[in-house]
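Notes on consecutive records. When two proteins share a document, each keeps its own sequence and its own C-alpha cell line. Never mix them. Below: protein one.
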Amino acid sequence: MNQARFSSPLLQRDGPPDQDSAVFWCRSSGGFPKPIVSWLINETEQPPEDSVWTQVAPVPDNNLYNVTSKLTVNISSDDSVSCSIMNQWMNETLTSRSSGVTDNTFRSRASEGMWMFSTGLCVAVGIMVGAGVAYQIHLDRIIRKKHKFLEETEEEMLTSKETSV
C-alpha cells in the first residue's frame, strides 16, 4: 500500500470545562503511512513534550493505521486547542480546532456534516410518512363515499322493485 487518507480528526475534551487542567483526545483512523500528530494552543503555542501521549496502531489485515493522541495541559476557558494529523506522503494535514474550551466536545467538520445529513434525512422521512398518511386518509374517504353511494343505489333499486310489484 502506498498511501491512504486519514479520517478527519475528532477532538474531544474530558472533564468539566471550568477546570484549569484539561485532557484533550484526538482520534483519526484508516490512513497510511504512520502520521505525524501535532497540537497547538491558541494556534501558535506548542504544548510541552511531556504533556502529549500518542499511539499509532496498525489495523489488523489491511496495513492502515489508527491514531490516538492525548494532551494534558493547563489552560484557561478562553484558550483554543487544535490537533493536526499530517500524512507526509500525501502532503495532507487534517486539523480539528476548538474555539475555546467551554464546550465539552469538539466535532470535526465531517461529524458536523453527518449531523446535518441525519437531520435532513429525518425531516425527509417525516414528510414522506406524513404524505403517505394524508394519501391513505384521502383514499379511505373515497372508498367510504363509494360504499355509501352503492348502498343508496341498492336501496333505491330495492324500493323501486317493491313499488313496482
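Protein two starts on the next line and is unrelated to protein one.
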Amino acid sequence: MAMPRRRRIDLPALQWLWLALVLGGFAAAGSLHFFAEYRAVEAREYERLAVQAAVIDKNLAQQLAATALALDAIRREVPANAAAAGQLSRRLTAMSDAMPGVRALLYLDATGKVLASDREQLIGQRFDQRAYFQLARQGGDPKALYVSPPFRTVLGVFTLTVSKVVLDARGQFAGVVTASLDPDYIMPLLDSVRYADDMRVTVTHGTGALYLSAPTGSQPPPATTDLIAQGALQPRHLGMDSPLHVTVARAQGSVFAEWRRHVGIASGVFVLVGLAAMLSLVWYQRQIARLATARNAAEQALEQSEARWRFALEGAGDGVWDWNMQTGAAFFSRRYHEILGHTDGEFAPRADEWMQRVHPDDMPEVSETLRCCLEGLTPTLVVEFRMRCKNGDWKWIHGRGMLVERDTAGQPLRMVGTNTDITERKRAEQELKLHRDELSSLVANRTVQLEAAMQSLLDAHDALAQSEARATLSTMIASVTHELSTPIANSTLTAEHLSECTRAFATQVAAGRTRRSELEAYAATMLEGTTLMQRNLLRARELLGHFKQVAADQASEQRRQFDLAHEVGEVVAALMPSLGRQPHRIAIEIPPGIGMNTLPGALGQVVINLINNAYLHAFEGRQDGLVTITATAHGETLCLCVSDNGKGIAEEHMALIFKPFFSTKIGRGGTGLGMAIIENLVRRTLCGTLQVRSALNVGTTVEIMLPRELPEPATALPAGQDQPAELPPN
C-alpha cells in the first residue's frame, strides 16, 4: 500500500502568519496599556477635582455658619421701638465691618420695611417682594436659614442673600434679618482652586440659578465634554432650605491632550515598525529564493567538476577519498592504495578501512580533529598521522578533508579529502631538529644571563610606573577631598539655617500668631534652602562619581571593556581638581561608541601624565593653554592623539624625551620620568606604539597607536620594540 505523501509546509505563508500574530499581539498589548493609562489619567483628574470642590465647600460652609451666628445675634437685639433702630444700625455696621464676606445686613419688619441696616441708603425702603423676604415669611421656621436665589440689588450688585425669621413675644411673624454675601470675597476662593487655564468653577443655587463662576462669565459645564466634580453645600446644623451646588470641571480635550500625544506617537512608531517588518520579510523571502536557485546551480556545477577535481589530485600524487556518512561507504582512489603499497581495489569500500590502519598513538588526535570538523568548529580537516603499509612499515600522511554536504538539520552527509605521503619531509624535519637542539645547547647559558638582566630592568620599570601611579592617585584624592569640602560645608550651613527658621516658625505656630505672609515667607525660605542643599549635594555626588571608577582603575591591573570617550571623560573630570584654577582648557573630541577591552588604569595613567606634562612644560608663561584629546578607530586599532598649543619641544631635545631623568625642569617640579613612564606603559603594558611631533611656538602632539583588544601577555612586545625582529639574511 502506498504511503500518503507528507503535505509540504508553505514556509513563506507561515512566516507571514507569524508576523501578523506578532504585530497583532503588540497592537493588543499597546491598546490595553493605553486604555489603562486613560483610566488612570481620568481617575487622577476626578480625584483632584473632587479635592478642589471639597475645599470650596468647606470654606463656604464656614462662611455661612459665621453668617448664621451673626443673624442669630441680630435677632436677639431687634429693638422694641423705633428709637432703638438707629442703635441697631450702628451695631449692624460694626458687625459688617468685622465680616468681610458679608456685603449688607438688614432688619425688615413684618411689612418688609427696612428698619435697620449697615447701609444708610437702604433704611426706610420696602423689600417685601424680594425672594429672601417672601421665603422667610412663608416658611416661618425660626431655626431655618433661608437661602434666596441670586439677584441684583438696588445698588447694582449681583448677590445672594440668607435670612432668618424674627418672631415677637407671642410667636408671631415680626420680620426678617438678612445678610447679603459679598461676591468679591468669594471669587478669590474660586480662582485659587483653578490649577489649569481650562478649569471652570461655578456656584449655583438649588433652583439652578448661577451665582458665581470662575473665570467670570463661564457657564456650568456640560457633562458630555467635561470632567466634573460636584458638591452640594447644605450642612444639617444650619437648616438651609436650599443647597448651594459647587461644580469644578475641566475640558476633556485638555486633560487627555498628553495621553493623545503619546497614543499618536506610539501608533506612528507601530505603523513604521510594522511596515519595516513587512518590507524586511519581503526582502528576506526574495533573498532565500535567490539563494535556493544559486544552491541548485552550485550543486550541478559541483557534480560536473568533481571528475575534473579527482583527475587533478591524482595527477599531483595525492590519494583521494570520498566518505558517505549516511551509508558508511567510502571510495579510495588508485593513488590512495599505492601510497600504502596496495593495488587498486584491494581495500573494502568502507570508512573503517582507513581507521584500522592509523597508528594507535595518533588515533586520539585524528579523532578529535575529525570531531571538530564534523561539528563545524573548524572549516576543514587538516591532520598529520601515521598509517600502516602492506609490508608493516609506517608512513607519515598529511590528511586534508572538507564537508561538502549537510542535511537541513545541519548534520554531515558527505566528506571528501586527500592523503599526501610526507614521510621524507618528516625525516628531514627530524634531522633539522637534532641540529637545532645542538645549537640551542651552545647558547643556553648566555640566554639565561641575558634574560636575568632583562628581567631586572623590566622589574625596575614596573616599580617606577607603579610608584608614579600611586603618586598621581594620592594627588587626585587630596584634590577631590578639597573640592568636596565646599559643597558639604555649604549644605551643613544651609541645614543649620533651615533648622533655626523651623524652630522660630514652630514657636509662632504654638503661640497662635501665624499669619499667611509669615507662612509664605517660611515656605520660600525652605524651598530656597533645600534647592541650595540639593545643588551642593549633587555637586559632591558628581565629584565622587568621576573619581570612583578612575581610582578603582588606577589601583587595579585588571583589563575590562569600556567606552573610550566615557573613560577619558571620567579620567579628566577626576584630574581637574588637582590642576587647580589654572586658566588652561582641556577639550575631549572623542566620538562615543569606540569600545575597548584593555587596561583602563594604564590608559588613564598615560592620559594623566600627558596632561600634567602639558600643564608643567608646554604652558609656562601662558594664559590660554589648550589640550585637545582626539581618537579614531581603524578596525581593531585605535589612534589616540593628545595635542597642546604650547611652546613646543626644541629639536635637540626630541631624541632625549624618553630617557629617564631627562627634564628641562629638574629641581623646578620636573622629575624626568613622565615620558619614560608613558613609553613603558604604552609599549609594554598596552602593547602599542607612540610617536611625538612638535614645533616651536606651535605645540606638541603625542600620537599613540593601541590595539582595541589587548593581546595575551605572551604576545606583548618588549619596551623599545615595535615590530618582531627579522631573521638575518642568509
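For the record: The first helix runs from residue 11 to 76.
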